[in-house]
Amino acid sequence: MKKKIVSLSVVIIILTISWFMGSKPAVPVDDKNTINNEKQVNKDDSDIDIEIVDNIDKNVEKQEQNKDLNNINDKDNNIENQQIAKSEESNIENQEDISELDNADDTNETDNENNEVSGSQIDETPKITDDDIKQESVQPEEKQHVPDIEQKDKPTNDTEPTDDVEKVSKESTINDDTDSVPTETKDNEQDEYLTDPVPEGKPQPLEPQEADVNESKSFELELAVRCDILLSNMNLLDKNKLELVPQDGMIFATKKVTAYEGESVFDVLLREMKNAKIHMEFVKTPMYNSAYIEGINNIYEFDAGDLSGWMYKVNDWFPNYGCSRYQVKENDKIEWIYTCDLGRDIGGDVSGGSFQ
């Protein structure tokens, strides 16, 4: 009896274990087909549901894209409308500016008409002529025998003598296109170049354009350039020029030099300063038909006062005409002298001599 009970309990235990282990009773074949059909139906239904969901998502995306496009189109339309409004405003402003300009032109025309009326009234007033001024002007001062000294700009002191002499040599030739015909002067009358009558026994001036230089005929003469008068007037000289004055006052010591037939005092000075590499600067003065010596050795006119400058004399006579018009001769003694008092301090005759 106990054995049966034990075997039954074992059977129950085994069945229980098998049940928990998932063992199921066999299913008939028909039931299996039914189950498979149900699974297939469920699968088809799930696929349909997935497709419906996909279509819904696509429609939503298209709607959102359409909304975005509509928003972009709206923005573009707004921008175009703003641009159109701005262009209309600018057109209105241009029309207003044009109207203002038209009004300004009208006012200018009225002003011009008023000015013409006032101008016509002014023109009716009596005019003062040059003859009236001349009649009321004070009588001119007595003519000086010394030609006026032309004020000219002075170059800087940094110029080197050699360069200045080369510059002067390029300008040495003084030519005129038309031949000047010397005019006869009466006593106490000046010629066309404002030259006072030449004293008796002194050479008459020869115009540079009439000179015929013959280099085949040469001769000797003496030449000197000095500024010794400055040694006793150093207080008048510019401080920057003190070192330019030689200790003995001789810039070019008296020396015999070569000259050619037909040359002038200016021609001789120009050549010798170039050869000695001494600075020299001049300017042509058509009023006197001659060259005017502004500076030698970087010492210029007016460096020692308003009455200072360079003068020349030939054979102890200060000619009353320019150095380009004095034709040299053999054995002439030429001196270029700096003066601080219009020649009075160097023995010059102001009534006869002249600055050069």
UniProtKB/TrEMBL annotation:
Compositional bias segments (type: Basic and acidic residues): 124-157
Highest taxon above the source species: Bacteria
Transcobalamin-like C-terminal domain boundaries: 262-339
Biased composition (Acidic residues): 90-114
Coiled-coil annotated spans: none
Matching InterPro entries: Transcobalamin-like_C (IPR027954)
Pfam families, A to Z: DUF4430
Disordered, as annotated region: 84-213
Name of the featured protein: Transcobalamin-like C-terminal domain-containing protein
Native source organism of the sequence: Vallitalea longa
Lineage: Bacteria, Bacillati, Bacillota, Clostridia, Lachnospirales
